[in-house]
Design brief:
By secondary structure, this protein is an all-alpha fold. It has one domain. Helices cover 62% and strands 0% of the residues. The protein contains eight helices and no strands. The N terminus is likely disordered.
């Protein structure tokens, strides 16, 4: 499937379409080598989102550029990974995402903390409200990236990371089956 360029999260309808698209791109992650759908728990998916935010905090703490996309600051790429995981999760559940909103500027470490708190709260959100809260969390991540790193077009970073992920050897079924491979 071809990755389409995301230009902004202009409205909730666009985010919902992005979620369906990202989920389709991640088909291999949701299915085993035989095509059987894998069970992914709510907690596991949120923990993976939280791990991206932990990586963003470390990139900010050490002022690192990204390992895989060295043209971008690590924080921006990890925020893109956070958004990709949230979009994929929303797409898996066919959620309608909230209208985007802009949050007040904060420094990066505070913004990452607030994102971590928002993701942690998703654990207790009723499925009927999950689309709103995931959309809101995506908006928070986008606002942080745009405010802290205005010289980088955030949705282009998301696009570049999606393209990169499609080529990654460690995302293939064969690599996941190897000892030390990613089991989730």
């Amino acid at each position: 499937m071809k990755v389409q360029l995301f230009t902004s999260s202009a409205d909730g309808q666009s985010l919902t379409r992005y979620a369906a698209h990202v989920h389709a791109l991640n088909h291999q992650w949701w299915h085993d080598a035989e095509g059987n759908r894998l069970v992914r728990s709510h907690s596991q998916l949120l923990a993976l989102v939280m791990s991206e935010l932990g990586e963003a905090l470390e990139a900010d703490r050490k002022n690192l550029m990204d390992d895989h996309l060295p043209q971008y600051p690590g924080v921006v790429v990890e925020l893109a990974d956070t958004v990709i995981r949230l979009l994929d999760y929303a797409g898996a559940l066919s959620l309608t995402l909230a209208e985007p909103r802009v949050f007040p500027p904060v420094d990066v470490s505070e913004g990452l903390w607030r994102l971590m708190c928002a993701v942690a709260k998703l654990e207790a959100v009723a499925i009927s409200d999950l689309g709103y809260h995931i959309g809101d969390t995506i908006s928070r991540a986008e606002t942080l990236a745009v405010e802290a790193y205005p010289s980088y077009a955030f949705w282009e970073v998301v696009y570049d990371k999606l393209c990169y992920n499609q080529q990654r050897a460690d995302h293939k079924h064969e690599a996941r089956a190897q000892p030390g491979g990613k089991k989730y």
